[in-house]
Structures are given as C-alpha cells and as structure tokens.
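Please, structure for the following, as tokens.
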Amino acid sequence: MLNVLLCPVCITIISVLVFASETNGQFCMRKFVNGKWHKIGNCDEILPRVGPKSCRDILHEGEARSGVYKIQPTQDRTPFKVYCDLESAGGGWTLVASVHENNMQGRCSHGDKWSSEKGSTNKSSKGSGNWANSNTFGTVENVTSDDYKNPAYFNIQALDVMMWHVPNDVGIQQVASNAFLKYYTKSGFLKNYGGTLHSLFSRYYTLTKVERQGMTSSGVTNLLAAFNHSASTIRSLIPSFYSYIYDRATLSLIDDGGLDMFDGGNAIYYRIGDVAEVKANYNITYRSGREWEFRAATSHPFIGMLWIGNQDGRIAKFSIKKVSRAGADGSGSCTTNSGSMNLGNMHLKYFGYNVYNAGDPSITELFFYIFNEVEWGSVPASAFTTPFWTSGTDHMTHSVQVTGNPRYILLGNMLLSKQAGVKITDSEMRAVLQKTMQVITNQGFSCNRLSESLVEPVAYLKGSNAAVMLRVPNRLTSFTNAGYIQFRPYSATGIPNAICPAVKTESCRPQSVCLGGINSIEDDERSCGDFSGWDGWPGDSPTSDKPSGYAKPTDDLKSSILIFTR
C-alpha cells in the first residue's frame, strides 16, 4: 500500500477546512476562529504547515504585547524566531536586521558583516554583499551585541521601515525601553522597490562604486576651462597686460616669452607629501585617485592648479614650485606681496613675487591657497608657507606649501605680466584673485549627490530633529538635515554607503553619519566598516554625547541600529 500522501483533497465549508487521506480515507478538519487555526480530529500528518508569516499576522491574530515570536514567511522554510513590535505606530513591525560595530579600529575586519570582514586580504569593493543577498547571520537574542539578519529581510513583503538606536548589550526584551531614537517611514515606499530591503539594494539602489563628481571629478580641468572663458576679463584687470608667447615646443617652460621676458622660465613643479617633486608639462592632467589632481594651462594668464582631496587625510603636505631665469638678468627691482581675502564662505591666502623696472615685460608669480569649510567641507591647512623664496631679478625659485593634512582645498599659481616692465600692484593682484574666486563660485563645486540616493521622510516615536542634529558631526551640520532615511548615499569620490539613519546629507563625507555598505579599504581605509567613518579623524575629540569635527558622539559608536519592516 502507498504510504505517502499524494494529493490532499480539500473541501472548504465556510471557515472549516476538511482534509482527506487517499491512504485510509480518514478525514480531519481545521477551523479558523478569531484569526487562528484550530485542529478538529487527530491526523496531523496530513495537515499542511500553517503559521504567521510576519509580525503583522501575529498582530492580526490578537497578540498585543511586543516580544519574540516564531514566524514562517514561506511554507518551505522552517519557522524562526523574530522580535515583533506590536505596539508602535499601529504595531506589526518585524525586526529583520541590526547593525552593530564591534571594533571601530578594525577597518572591515571580523564582525563587519554588513560591509566586509576581509579587510586588506580581499580588496574587492563588493565586500560582503549582505545588504543585497540572502545570507542570514546572528540571533535575535543578541541583536545589540552582534550583526543580525534573518530571512524576513528578503522574504516578507513590506511597505515601510522603522529604525531604533539602542545601546549595545541590551537584552532583547529591553530594547524597546532602552532605545534613545525611534522613527519610521509611512509613505509605503517599499512597494515601489520590490517590497523588501533586499530587493531595494539588489535591484534598484545597488552598492557599487561610481565615477567621482563635483570637486573631485575633473574639477581642476573644468575649473581651468571656466577660468580660460573668463581670461579676457581677468586680463582687463591688469592695465597693459603682456600676453607672453608659449615658445617651447614641449610646453614645459617658456624659453623667452617675447621681448626677453625670460631666459628660460615658468617651469612649474608639484609635490605630494614626501614624494619627489614632479616637473609638469602644460595642458596635461596629473591625478591620483581621490587624493589630488594637478593641471597647468597655457591661457593668458598662465595658471596651474592643484586640487587637494586627500579624503582620508593621510598626506600631510602639498606644494607648488616655480623656477625661472628672468630676462632682467639682475637689473630692475623686486618685491614680495602677501595677504588674504574672502568671498562668502570662501577664504583665500596669497603670496606674490614681482620683477619690474628692467625694461623687459614685468613678471609676477602669484601663488594662492583657497578653502571653503561650508560648501566644500574643507579641512584647512595648519600653515601656508614659502619653503623657497629667493630674492633678486635673475635666478628665481619660489614655492608655497600647505601642511597639516589638509582636505578639500585648492592650491594655485598664476603668471601675470605688464608691458615695458611696469610693476603690478597689490590691488591689481587682489582684483585678479577676487575674479578667480568668482569663477570658482560660479563653477559650482559641490558634493551634493542626493539625486543618486533614495530619501524618505520619517516620523518620530522617540527623539526629534533637534535631538538628531545634536549628534551630527560639526563639519557636516551645514550639509545635513534630520528627519529622513537616506538609502545609498554616495561620497564625492563615488563610494556608496548603505543607509543614513535619521538624516539625509549632501556632505563630501557621508560616511561620518551613514552605515557602511562595501569594502572601501583601497579607496578610504579609515571609513571601511559597518559604522563606516563615525569615529572621524585623528584630532577629533567627541564626548559621550557631543560630536567633534567629523566624529559622532562616542555613545553612538557604542549603540546598535535595529531595522524593522512592516
């Protein structure tokens, strides 16, 4: 006799299911009362598995107290335990994940399951891929002491997301009462992205590196093009401007320039950190990833610019040097000028060296350094100095240097000249620099990549916009707004994070407030990890409840982010 159930025959009468076994003709029934199935008969072996698919089902079955329950999202999966919030904002929330950082100094090491546990041993930027795959890890009992992800993350269809910020090592039954921030979306946005966070990250907002943008993506090249477009206006600020001749075929210096301006001059060098200086050819872009970009353009006036990204702050100093032999051959006069200027949030410092009154076209080497802490997120140099600054009107070597691990700043040089050896005044130099700042402002350097993210507003169950902003690092407050969840924020250099809890940000460095998503060990080692760059930079000094620089309060580093869907 066949002992395997081949095909149950079901007869539905109102709220009663009747099952028949082909093997012995025995009948048994289940009836549905008050949202629950109840057995009638004694033939469990032929009944299909029936259980709540989510915490929302448990709520509809009449349960009202939050806690740990078993759910079974799909019939082919064994029931598993989850935490259900059956009380907040109508209840029915299923805890699907938690993000916990066990070692901020580990940099994509053991325990960083949401970014990468491989660190420098596997530099693939894909990392773990756990935001977009079907891996599971952790246990519901330990959601505040380890990373956690259960099958509900990819199996339960949902509309909205809720997030709690809970101190580490809090027991599962105490997470609700100990959370210091609670907020949720209520737009139903997940229905547009497959109904799960898994679908959102695997199909719609994938965590992959993209091209750099704004200040760090051909920023110098585009800026020099804008400068050249405004060159006639800039020349008009220097009466009797002399348009020297670029007469060297290789375009790495000016042999004479016409009218004996040089006896071989205008050679430009850049230096990055302690690496040997490099003599640059004109109209060639030199670049190193996210760190820096240099280009010198044969415009009138000549201009060279070094954009310093230095995103991870590892490079301590940068410099530009000019070497020339003036046609004055020791005759005439020379002076040095220096000063500072502002335009809005932009700050500029400069040094100028002038050779004049020799009958040849005058020479002014004008060096400048620009930073903008608000729009660019600059970390200013601790010093702007002149390591080489010769005097005289024959052999000339002049350089400027910025030190102190600066980030997001601009270093530049211009060659100005007047006919017949007439001196260029300090006020004329300042007029040229003022126009240069206007060109930069109009070019619109920005780190804003919100258009590449998904941003959803939230309502608070505990906390407020003001409370959230008190925890945002000081250097990000001008670019960050509370009251949102931002999915897949990009840095200016194209590095994606996964989620920004409680905020949206246009900062150059979203990793200071967002959760990690990939292995960024090659591009930004300091921000590689589940809590990405929350610990800021060396020199930042946050306290338990106050941020500093690029660092969040230390209490935030000692908390876990719980993620629910409904």
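The chain has three domains: 1-48, 49-211+448-566, 214-443. The two ends are 47 Å apart (CA to CA).
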